[in-house]
């Protein structure tokens, strides 16, 4: 009810869709658009789609459909296959067949990983400044010595790998 | 095509069979992961700690740390 009120407020013309415009010329009956009708799908979980695959049959196919109304043992193997192909697009085997898409995907992924690596190399060389002085060898060895003196992680960690008697890493 | 009929495929119990397979598999895999972790990580770690503390002398350790100079309130001299 409210919708018709809106119609009168805004005016019929501006709300009409192209479908409604066409309907005005055909005595109010709209031709069903393709997207509103049931469709054929090739899906594993839909074994019998709502419509047959081939919508418009040729004369030959129509003759075959007539022959189908009689006894099926009169049909040859090729005719049976033709009837199948009229009703269905792909067999389950064709539907479930794998593709080679994974190769493309893997190749693309590796390519972009490599490209990213090149970008990182360029960045390290041209863009970043020097690392902090705390990464120098002298600082790191002094740091490690202090960790061993403090007995950091003595059970399974770094101190457990150090031989205090021989003053070297355990073999 | 009409000469040799294909064997009739399994028509029923498909979900039940899949569920049985996956339930069993999930149980075995999760139990296996737990057992693997227990015997590869947890037990060795417990053993390592037990071995370490069996012969641990805290005073000797303290003297060593003090001598190295890492204790602020207990200088080496």
Automatic annotation (TrEMBL), chain A:
<keyword id="KW-0496">Mitochondrion</keyword>
<keyword id="KW-0999">Mitochondrion inner membrane</keyword>
<comment type="similarity">
    <text>Belongs to the cytochrome c oxidase IV family.</text>
</comment>
<dbReference type="InterPro" id="IPR013288">
    <property type="entry name" value="Cyt_c_oxidase_su4"/>
</dbReference>
<comment type="function">
    <text>Component of the cytochrome c oxidase, the last enzyme in the mitochondrial electron transport chain which drives oxidative phosphorylation.</text>
</comment>
<dbReference type="GO" id="GO:0005743">
    <property type="term" value="C:mitochondrial inner membrane"/>
</dbReference>
<keyword id="KW-1133">Transmembrane helix</keyword>
<protein>
    <recommendedName>
        <fullName>Cytochrome c oxidase subunit 4</fullName>
    </recommendedName>
</protein>
<dbReference type="Pfam" id="PF02936">
    <property type="entry name" value="COX4"/>
</dbReference>
<comment type="subunit">
    <text>Component of the cytochrome c oxidase (complex IV, CIV), a multisubunit enzyme composed of 14 subunits.</text>
</comment>
<dbReference type="GO" id="GO:0006123">
    <property type="term" value="P:mitochondrial electron transport, cytochrome c to oxygen"/>
</dbReference>
<keyword id="KW-0812">Transmembrane</keyword>
<comment type="pathway">
    <text>Energy metabolism; oxidative phosphorylation.</text>
</comment>
<feature type="transmembrane region" description="Helical">
    <location>
        <begin position="104"/>
        <end position="122"/>
    </location>
</feature>
<keyword id="KW-0472">Membrane</keyword>
<dbReference type="InterPro" id="IPR004203">
    <property type="entry name" value="Cyt_c_oxidase_su4_fam"/>
</dbReference>
<dbReference type="InterPro" id="IPR036639">
    <property type="entry name" value="Cyt_c_oxidase_su4_sf"/>
</dbReference>
<dbReference type="GO" id="GO:0045277">
    <property type="term" value="C:respiratory chain complex IV"/>
</dbReference>
């Amino acid at each position: 009810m409210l919708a018709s009120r809106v119609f009168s407020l805004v005016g019929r013309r501006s709300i009409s869709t192209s479908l409604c415009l066409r309907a005005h010329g055909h005595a109010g009956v709209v031709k069903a658009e393709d997207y509103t009708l049931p469709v054929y799908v090739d899906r594993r979980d839909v074994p019998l789609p709502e419509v047959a695959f081939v919508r418009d049959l040729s004369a030959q196919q129509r003759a075959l459909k007539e022959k189908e109304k009689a006894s099926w043992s009169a049909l040859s193997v090729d005719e049976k296959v033709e009837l199948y192909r009229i009703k269905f697009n792909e067999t389950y085997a064709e539907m479930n067949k794998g593709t080679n898409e994974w190769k493309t995907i893997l190749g693309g992924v590796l390519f972009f990983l490599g490209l990213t690596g090149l970008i990182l190399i360029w960045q390290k060389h041209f863009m970043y400044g020097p690392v902090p002085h705390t990464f120098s060898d002298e600082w790191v060895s002094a740091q490690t010595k202090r960790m061993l003196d403090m007995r950091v992680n003595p059970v399974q960690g770094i101190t457990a790998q150090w031989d205090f008697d021989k003053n070297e890493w355990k073999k | 095509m009409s000469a040799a009929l294909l064997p009739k495929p399994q028509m029923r119990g498909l979900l039940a069979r899949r569920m049985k397979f996956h339930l069993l598999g999930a149980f075995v895999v999760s139990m296996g992961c737990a057992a693997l972790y227990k015997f590869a990580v947890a037990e060795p770690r417990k053993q390592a700690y037990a071995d370490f503390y069996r012969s641990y002398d805290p005073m000797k350790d303290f003297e060593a740390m003090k001598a190295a100079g890492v204790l602020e309130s207990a200088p080496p001299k």
